[in-house]
Amino acid sequence: MKYRHRAAALAATAVVLAGAGPAAAASSSPAPSPTPSVAIPDGLYGTTDPTYDGVWRQSLALLAQESVGVTPADKAVAWLAGQQCANGAFAAFRAEAGAGKPCDAKLMVDTNSTAAATQALAALGGHDAEVRKAVTWLKSVQNADGGWGYTPGGASDANSTSVVVGALAQGGETVPNLRKGGKSPYDALHALALPCDGKDGGAFAYQPGKKGELAANADATAAAVLGLLGEPLTGSRQDDSASPAACTAFDASKEPEKGAANGAGWLAEAMAKDGHLTSALPGAEDQPDYGNTADAIVALSSSGLNDQAAAPLRWLEGNFAQWAKDSGPAAYAQLVFVANAARGADARDFGGQDLVELLNATGPAPKAVEKKDQSTASAEKAEKKDDDGLSPAYTIGGGLLVGAAIGFVLMVRGRKRRQS
Asked: Residue 200: how many CA atoms within 13 Å on its side-chain side?
């Protein structure tokens, strides 16, 4: 997901389990980051060149902070809002920023940056005007097949369509009613679903191949699951579904959740063997794909497949540290989304590390950090131990051991669907 702003370029090399290629495993001895070609703006998260991902990573960072009770620094929010063009669109980055100012005609605006920024500003609140302008622009560049491409007029793809669906839902739109040429966004996603009676049935392709063929893509599938559920990038924690449903044909306009269930089932099967996804780019050795595994966990958890998400969650908790450190704020944000959506996960204690502190350290100090209620924290810790097969026992005073059975209520974040 970190590199979705470059999805169009990466699609040419994506194969079955390759999605956001560069977000794959970090080298044990990573090369030093090149000197940014532009000055790092005050208020921006991360220290790498923002030319290709400034708005994307800022949006994810702010979304993640809001989801865990962090009030971002004013200048961080102002920087993002100031990136918006007068017509409502966002580019990946513009150096000459200013809220409401027209963008240079040569500057390439895109749906992914616009949708991510819309989700962040809508979640933060207080930016209704900016959100309305962005929503209006996104609706204006919907393709005739109901979907969206990375750039206005570009061929629809699963990733762009899904992140836009999440933005429009956050912006108050009834997504199934957004039709172009009689087609809804769900019709566009349906067209990218691999048929149940063929290889990789239930998965989604990024885009059709030159001959119209569809190749399963993990990144596209995880995105499509959230899109068909009407979820934002954060996903949401859901009650358990007993098991992945068998892949079934679905009517995109009437039952998009069936398509989401198909995709989630395929993701569960794809991760069942190794407990994670693997990148497979031509000319490169296969490696664990941390970013797409994180996205897949959010998709599974948002579909209620908590048991199927458990093993990938444990793997990610044990292996994320170097990847996230090398990748920066967008990666930490992805992990916060995982911790919020996955049963038994805690953003404050993810593999023994505090994701909230790690994310906050990549940018301007937030205005406020909400402290978790201790009773809630204790209940979540007990839940996690119980998931790992450990009995909750506590030592009190001078060595008195008390066996305690702790009851708790799992706080389920309601899906923010606005479907009719």
From this structure: 18
Distance CA 131, CA 172 (A): 10
pLDDT band with cut points at 50, 70 and 90 for residue 283: confident
Q: Are 178 and 184 contacting, i.e. CB atoms less than 8 angstroms apart?
A: yes
Q: What is the DSSP letter of 64?
A: H
Distance of CA 341 to the CA centre of its chain: 11
Distance between CA atoms of residues 368 and 388, nearest Å: 33
Query: Residue 416, exposed/middle/buried by CB under 10 A (0-12, 13-18, 19+)?
Result: middle
Model pTM greater than 0.85?
no
What is the pLDDT, as a whole number, of residue 228? 97
Beta bridge mates, 402: 394
Each residue of 38-51: pLDDT tens digit?
A: 889 999 999 999 99
CA 43 to CA 58: how far, in whole Å? 9
Tokens 């920087």 label which residue? 79
Read off the tokens for 283.
């000319």
